[in-house]
Amino acid sequence: MRPEIEFSEKQVAIIQAAEKLFAEHGFDGASVRDIAQEADVNVAMISYYFGSKEKLMEAVFEKKSNATRLKVENLIADKTISPLQKVYVLIDDYVDKFIHQQEFHKIMLREQMINKHTPIAALIHELKKRNLESIKTLIAEGQKTGEFKRNIDVILMMTTMVGTVSQMITSQHFYKTLNNMEHMEEMEFQRHMRKRLSTHLKNLFKKMITNE
Amino acid sequence: MRPEIEFSEKQVAIIQAAEKLFAEHGFDGASVRDIAQEADVNVAMISYYFGSKEKLMEAVFEKKSNATRLKVENLIADKTISPLQKVYVLIDDYVDKFIHQQEFHKIMLREQMINKHTPIAALIHELKKRNLESIKTLIAEGQKTGEFKRNIDVILMMTTMVGTVSQMITSQHFYKTLNNMEHMEEMEFQRHMRKRLSTHLKNLFKKMITNE
DNA sequence: CAAAATCAATTAAACGTTTGTTTAGTTTTA
DNA sequence: TAAAACTAAACAAACGTTTAATTGATTTTG
Hints:
The structure is a homodimer of 212-residue chains. The first copy, chain A, has 212 residues and is mainly alpha-helical. Chain A has a domain at 64-209: Tetracycline Repressor, domain 2. Chain A has ten helices and no strands. Chain A has helices at 9-29, 32-38, 44-50, 53-77, 83-100, 102-113, 119-145, 154-170, 172-178, 186-209. In chain A, helix 1 packs antiparallel against helix 2 (32-38), helix 1 (9-29) packs across helix 4 and helix 5 (83-100) runs antiparallel to helix 10. Chain A is globular and about 60 Å long. The model of chain A has no long low-confidence stretch (mean pLDDT 91). At the A-B interface, helix 6, helix 7, helix 8, helix 9 and helix 10 of A face helix 6, helix 7, helix 8, helix 9 and helix 10 of B. Chain A binds a DNA duplex (30 and 30 nucleotides) through residues 8, 10, 28, 31-33, 41-48, 52-53.
């Protein structure tokens, strides 16, 4: 296990600025000069503290992935709701998170697209593996109670969930013009997308995993 | 309708080189110098003939999208197979194309991720809209024969198909290590992926669109 | 018909910009 | 006073694009 690293005030400012600008403009789109300006810090401080832009990205990602991991593990451990309800919460959480942090998730998608084994790809890998394990135990739980059927392909099930949401976000401009929603307020459109994605995925998952 | 443009020998060489290198290294990853070398042509010829790297990409994309459009339209018009079989063929074709031209499809994904209304995004947009129309008529056909049920959300259905395949390709390295397949031959792994994706999507679609 | 002019094709080289990073100092802190 | 924090400036590499000159072929002209 990695020891927790203490960050100074300026380091935190840099990480926050990076998180914001990476999320808004992507990894390549946010230059170190932009980030330094946003954090009100000299450009050289980024290399000084983090070594490189890439390492800075790792720090940002590590911060975010810890939160995600905890949330999923707490959901699985919850004894007050049924396995199917947990799956529904999982879907809603994922849809919400992706919609509200679109640009940041796009960075993750881009990073996974590269075949290179970058440190960031390794971190994403680690997070996904952990979450997949949690979800497998959740499915097993549902199978024990008889709610879920046998022979569920959990990996492809998750691939479909992540893929559907990603694709929806990725092609949202296409979706907008297709439904004459260009004029719609951004917030309203996000609510619409959230609802429609959630409904679609819950229907899909119910058919995939339950006995009728 | 756009008039067909005649390309000289060198222009064709450039387009082919670009198609190859874009597919192997992505848009940013393939420099104009690399492309010029591959086509055995001076760097300046790219700007001279196509105006810019971006415009070159448009030419490459346009060439490819014509083939796709024709294939889908021919499938829909086929009177020898049932609507459900057509959907299955559609799935297989899409899975195959994506698997065999992974890097090129990644370019399309990246291009759609950018919110900017680039000319390439517009071309993708156009192609997708056309294909979506074809598929809607296919679904309507199946509904008329009673094979398919009413109230099918075609847009989200396609989002799930495209998204699932994209996500599988995008995270294939993760998938490999998860199943201890790092050692597997690339061709064999592709066959495996193709089969598993195809099966999963056909199951999914059958449940989504048919009455039982 | 041959010479001259015109135009597209082609080239090597340079341009201008942007990028992440490093250097060589200076200031602050302990 | 020594180490850490911080800075302005320069650096080096890569990129897409443009320039200016040359070649080759085709057309115009005398």
